[in-house]
């Protein structure tokens, strides 16, 4: 899918603010699970870390936990404002809030990440993002001709970035492969 570059410029669409609750169908925190009660396993445990996509551990707890997938986790304490997209199932701690919209695909979630991460400038360890505050927060999003979020633009924009990165990667890979083949031929 090739789209004209000028259409994919972030300067071209109009932008408008929307409340988090108007964008996400569900805004839900994980549940508290102290380290002593974590059972080692294979399911990612997402907490308020700014590293490793927020994954703090791998556990096998099945009771009194909240599992999520295909959503954004937002650290509301600790590394406040760190946000990550998770396409896989994970267990969430009470230090992260899940932003869920079943209609979104990975490209729309990826477009939203840097916009959501800007909250980190507003909050800190002493001023956490709580349930009340997140409902007052707004996201600045590109809009369509009717004033609604332009989901198609967001998806196309991220697909274009992915396509360009893949093309660059394959170009480098083919150069390396050509060099290896040339050395083998000699």
Tell me what you see in this structure.
The structure is a single chain. With 186 residues, the protein is of the alpha+beta class. The strands form three sheets. It has a four-stranded antiparallel sheet with strand order 2-9-6-7. The protein has helices at residues 20-23, 106-117, 131-136, 151-185; strands spanning 14-19, 26-29, 40-46, 55-59, 67-68, 71-75, 83-86, 90-92, 96-100, 138-143. It has one domain (15-185): DNA methylase specificity domains (Adenine-n6-DNA-methyltransferase TaqI, Chain A, domain 2). Helix 2 packs across helix 4. It is 31% helix and 25% strand.
Estimate nothing, just give the exact number of structural domains. 1
Q: How would you write the strand order of the largest sheet?
A: 2-9-6-7
Q: Calculate the terminal CA-CA distance, rounded to whole Å.
A: 40 Å
Would you state the CATH class?
Answer: Alpha Beta
According to CATH, the homologous superfamily is DNA methylase specificity domains
Outline, from the CA principal axes?
Answer: globular
| Rg, Cα atoms, Å | 20 Å
GO molecular function: DNA binding; endonuclease activity
Keywords: DNA-binding, Endonuclease, Hydrolase, Nuclease, Restriction system
Protein name: Type II restriction endonuclease subunit S
Family: Belongs to the type-I restriction system S methylase family.
Spell out the key features of this protein.
Adenine-n6-DNA-methyltransferase TaqI, Chain A, domain 2, globular, alpha+beta, 186 residues, four-stranded antiparallel beta sheet, four-stranded mixed beta sheet
């Amino acid at each position: 899918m090739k789209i004209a570059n000028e259409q994919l410029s972030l300067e071209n669409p109009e932008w408008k603010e929307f409340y988090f609750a108007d964008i996400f169908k569900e805004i839900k925190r994980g549940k508290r699970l102290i380290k002593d009660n974590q059972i080692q396993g294979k399911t990612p445990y997402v907490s308020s870390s700014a590293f490793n996509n927020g994954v703090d551990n791998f556990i096998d707890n099945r009771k009194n936990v909240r599992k999520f997938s295909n959503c954004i986790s937002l650290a509301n304490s600790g590394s406040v404002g760190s946000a990550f997209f998770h396409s896989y199932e994970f267990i969430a701690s009470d230090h992260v809030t899940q932003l869920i919209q079943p209609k979104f695909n990975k490209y729309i979630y990826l477009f939203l990440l840097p916009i959501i991460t800007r909250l980190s400038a507003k909050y800190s360890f002493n001023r956490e993002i709580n349930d009340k505050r997140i409902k007052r927060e707004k996201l600045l999003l590109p809009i369509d001709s009717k004033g609604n979020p332009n989901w198609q633009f967001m998806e196309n924009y991220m697909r274009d970035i992915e396509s360009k990165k893949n093309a660059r990667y394959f170009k480098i890979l083919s150069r390396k492969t050509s060099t290896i083949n040339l050395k083998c031929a000699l």
